[in-house]
Amino acid sequence: MPLTAMQVYKNLPKSHANCGDCGFPTCMAFAMQVAAKQKAITDCPHLSEESKGAMADASAPPMKLVRIGPPGEAGVEIGQETVMFRHEEKFRKPPALAVTIAASLSDEEALARLERINAAVFTRVGEEIGVRLAAVDLEGLSAGAAAARVKALAGKSRAPLVLMSASPAALAGAAKAVADRKPLIYRASGSDAEAVIGIAAENKCPLAVHADSLEALADLAKAAKDRGVEDILLSFDGRDTARSIREITRARRAALKKGFRALGYPAMVDVAVDDPLKETVLAGTFAAKYAGVILLNGLDGAELLPVLTTIQNIYTDPQVPNTVEAKLYEIGNVNENSPVMFTTNFSLTYFCVEGEVERSKMPSYVCVVDTEGLGVLNAYAGDKLSPEKVVKTLQAQKVADRVRHRKLIIPGLLPSFRAEIEDISEWKEVIIGPENASGIPAFLTANWK
Question: Which CA distances in Å does 161 have to 58, 204, 206?
């Protein structure tokens, strides 16, 4: 039976009450996180061994937090999910894309591909998104060649490595060469499973396990845990899409709803196919259906961006609006003759406007109005945006002090604002702008002199 916050609180050491060493201001705040399966009881550094033993299993999150790579910001964390559906609360750890580096490549070609992986980072709505793992295929390489390949790549990679081979000897050589970087070993399966588990245990590396059924997969994960492997992933073949979705869903439900610890690990899904369009569709599908790591071949932005955008959208908090600070933004080298426009503080709206203003090559002021994270039409419909609020925001941000003119560009979706803003403010020439941000460059070129 799950522990309550009060049960956890009663077992915390009173000698260090509210010390804050766990990262929370009070012991009760920490206890509530433990009861909600967001933190493990062992995260209290002052807990006695007796209390740890009594409560550790009951208080641990139902899905293990798995780390790939060295400690610090360079590592990738996945897992620790607590709900089946995003609307129940939120999803916590976004899946990591792992792009392959084929074994058939020469050393120079492998380094060139790694450089492309390093550069596969994009900025969308103010957040960096990109490829987070480099998957090094070692198939057909000897232990020595595998070790040399991963050692050369590890020193130049910004992303943690995934070591891929059906040969335990190649995996052993590679893992030993870069054990300090904690690469993910992919994967323990079939008759070689025991040997690969031993490699992961010896080098203290995370491990992906694979089996033909969920029952066998649970047994294999338990065998790895019993050997001392702490960070485990459940591996699935994404090309067998329907079956993999069913099995990943069953595994997640068993862990979260039934407390079945043997399946309480994040999923790793291989969607690598030759057709880039199919690979994109498969990767996007498993990004939405519980994958923790997605293995693929594609490196073109046209393939990666749809998947990364899907991940970014799904792994936002549905209970917290995605906003930017409501203030006056200067885009480019503005001066007293620069255009002035306003928009809402919904981040996607603002960053679309910012990007199009930058593309116009015309430095501009953008006044951001606090609409509690709603876009233009939603804010207007929900009474979060009005001419009076726009005028008050312009006054509070002292926009008139920055420019000589009194021309204000308003969103084309709000033409009714023009007359009232002109009546109640010093902005006597209100210009109705384009309805979509994409029209801003042409609009400024045609209408701003």
Answer: 33, 14, 11
CATH number of the structural domain spanning residue 155: 3.20.20.20
Both tokens assigned to 236: 């699935």
351-359 average pLDDT score: 95
Query: If phi over 0 gives left and psi between -120 and 50 gives alpha, with beta otherwise, what is residue 20?
Result: left
CA distances from 195 to 17, 185, 214, 275 (A): 46, 12, 21, 34
CA distance 302 to 316: 22
Same domain, 302 and 181: yes
Confidence of residue 1 (pLDDT cuts 50, 70, 90): very low
Q: Is the pLDDT of residue 58 over 70?
A: no
- Between 193-203 and 168-177, two packed helices, what is the crossing angle to 10 degrees? 10
Closest by CA position to 178, among listed 143, 214, 203, 198: 203
d(C-alpha 289, C-alpha 275), whole Å: 21
Whole domain around residue 148: which residue ranges?
65-314
**79-134 tens-digit pLDDT:** 999 899 988 888 989 999 999 999 999 999 999 999 999 999 998 888 899 999 99
